[in-house]
From TrEMBL:
Catalyzes the pyruvoyl-dependent decarboxylation of aspartate to produce beta-alanine. It comes from Flavobacterium luminosum. The keyword Cytoplasm applies. Belongs to the PanD family. Its cofactor is pyruvate. The modification Pyruvic acid (Ser) is found at S25. It is found in: Cytoplasm. This is Aspartate 1-decarboxylase.
């Protein structure tokens, strides 16, 4: 049997922009994507701490070390600049693997979105 588990998490980052006229997705600083093991095009869940919104989209890399967290397309309506969000990715693995699996969870500075 397979189960869905937490694979990656970027805990509490600040939204730097919202671009309604973009096709869709969330732009994430590539440094944060690499550190959290989130891949380009991967489905992610977004939890908005400020307003309780929960929604799904896919990740695209932004410039490294830029701190960029931009919601694009329709998702831009679910956030405002400076909202604090959590970005989560899940994976499907065998139940026997889940007992020893460790997700990639990072805790960036929520003022700068940096790992320092």
């Amino acid at each position: 049997m397979q189960i869905q588990v937490l694979k990656s998490k970027i805990h509490r980052v600040r939204v730097t922009g919202a671009d309604l006229n973009y096709i869709g997705s969330i732009t994430i600083d590539e440094t944060l994507m690499e550190a959290s093991n989130i891949f380009e095009g991967e489905k992610v869940s977004i939890v908005n701490i400020n307003n309780g919104e929960r929604f799904e989209t896919y990740a695209i890399p932004g410039p490294k070390n830029s701190g960029e967290i931009t919601l694009n397309g329709p998702a831009a309506r679910k956030v405002q600049k400076d909202d604090i969000i959590i970005i989560i990715a899940y994976g499907i693995i065998e139940m026997s693997e889940a007992k020893n699996f460790k997700p990639s969870v990072i805790f960036p500075n929520e003022e700068t979105n940096s790992l320092q």
